[in-house]
Specification:
The protein has 492 residues and is an alpha+beta fold. It contains 16 helices and eleven strands. It has helices spanning 2-11, 39-42, 46-57, 76-83, 113-131, 135-154, 164-180, 186-195, 215-252, 262-272, 275-281, 285-317, 319-332, 346-358, 392-396, 441-458; strands at 60-65, 68-73, 92-93, 369-370, 375-377, 380-382, 387-390, 459-462, 473-475, 479-481, 487-490. The strands form four sheets. The protein has a five-stranded mixed β-sheet.
Amino acid sequence: MYNKLREEIAFDGVLGGGTAGSIKAPPPGPPRISWKNLSPFMNESMHLELSELADRYGDVFRLRIKGGDLVVLSGLKTVWGALVAQEGVFDDRADFEILKQAPQCHFVELKSGSFWKKHREIFVEVMHTYFSGRWSEVEGWLQDEAASLVQSITQKNGNPFDPNRCLALANLSFIQRTIFGRRCSEEDKQAFHENGVTLIPSGFMNATSLGRLSRMWRLIFYFFRKSSLEGFKNGINGLSGYIAKNVDEHRESYTPNVMRDMCDHLLHAGSELSAEERATFQLYDQDIVNGSLTQVAGAGTGVPTFALRWVLLYLVKHPDIQAELHREVDAVLCTAPMMSDRSKMPYMQAFLNEVLRHAPITPLPAVYYRTTRDTNVNGYFIEKNTPVMVNYYSIARDPSVWENPHAFDPGRFLDAEGKLRKDLQNKFFPFGLGARRCIGEHLGRMQMFLLCAHLVYHFKFSSPPEGSGHTKAIHGVFMVPESYRVVATPRN
C-alpha cells in the first residue's frame, strides 16, 4: 500500500527531494498578513480557514508574516509526499513562542535534531520492551477500568450526565497503572481534577503561529487569549509536577533487576546512557524519564477520552448507527468484549474509523514542522528552516479520497461483504504521519475499541429531555466537542 501510494505521488510530480534544484518559485498565497486577513491566526476554526485558502491557492501555499513565511500543506498526496517520501526533510520542529509557556515540559515531540532522534529511539525501545509479551496483562488492566466505567455510568440511574469526567478517569487510571504500576487513588483523581490536567487541550487555541507574529500582534493575541494560555500553562506544569513527584517516589524504591512498570524501564534506560552520550545529545534523566512519562500520561489520557466523547455524541446523533452496533455486539458477544473479538466486529471498527476521520482529534499539529534543508513540494521551492504546518483535517476531507467527505458514514470503510476495506486503512492518519507519527498509536486504538465496545454492549445512549449536545467543537491542541449531557439506559 505504501509503495503504491509513493509511486502515485512520484508520477503526479508531488515528490520534491531537490536541495535547490532548478525550481525556485515559492508557493503562492494570500497577500502579506495584515489586520484584514489576520483571521487564520485568531479564529478557533483555523483548520477550516486554512482549508479554504487551500481551495483558492492549492495544496501548497504560504502565509507571509512579518516574522517570516509559514508554508501550509494540505491533501493526502501532498502531505505524504512531504512527511514520508522526503525522509528527514520535515522532521524538525519550529521554535515557537508557545513552547516557552510551559517551561517544565520535556515532551519528546517538542524537540528536534540529534536530541529528538536519540530520545525517540530510547522511548520506542522502552515501549517495545515493556509491552512485548505483556499485551494480555495490559488488556486485563483495561478491562478493570472498563468495568469501573460501566459501574460509574450505571450509578447515574438513567439521569442525564456529562460523560467527560468518567471517561477521563477511566483512561487516566489505566495509564497510571501502565506507567507507575498502580491504579489511580482518590488522591490521584483529585489532583488531576484540581489541576485541570484532563482538560488541558479544551480551552487552548492552536497558537503556535504566535512565534511568527510581530511583538505588537503577540500582545494583542495575549490580550484576547490570556485565560486559555494561562490554563494551558498551568495544566501542563501541573501534569509535569505530578509526574515528577511520582518519579521521585519510584526512584527511591527502584531495583535495577526488577522492572515493575514503564517508569522502571525508563529509569533503567537512563542509567544505560553513557556520560559521553549524555554530553553529545544533551539528554538527561529528566528528559528520558519525566519527559517520556509526561507525554504518555497527557496523550494516553487525552486522546482516547476526546475520541470517546465524540463516540457518544455520534451514537446519540445517529440512533440507526447505534442500533446496528447493538446488533453486531449481540451477534458476536456472549460476555463482556475482549480484544480478540475485534476481528469479528467490522462495523465497530468502521464506526471508530469514521469517528476519527470525521472528527480528527488533531486537525492541526500543536507544534509546526521545520525543513532541515532546501526542498521542493508540488513544484514549489521551500527554503531550509521554513516553518511548515500540516492540515490533517484536509486529509480527512480530501474529495479525491473520500466520497461525500463531510457526511458521517461508517459504511464507507466496509466492502460489499461487510468486511473492512483494506484500501482505506492508510488514507487517513489520526495519529499523525511520518517520522513523528504517534508512538502510542496501538495502545490508543486498544483503549478506544475496548472502552467503546463495553459502552455499546452495556448501554443505549440517548438525548436528555432538554436536548443533546451539538456537534460544535472546541478547537485547541486537540479538537473536542463542547460539553454535553447524555442518558445511558442499561441493556439487558
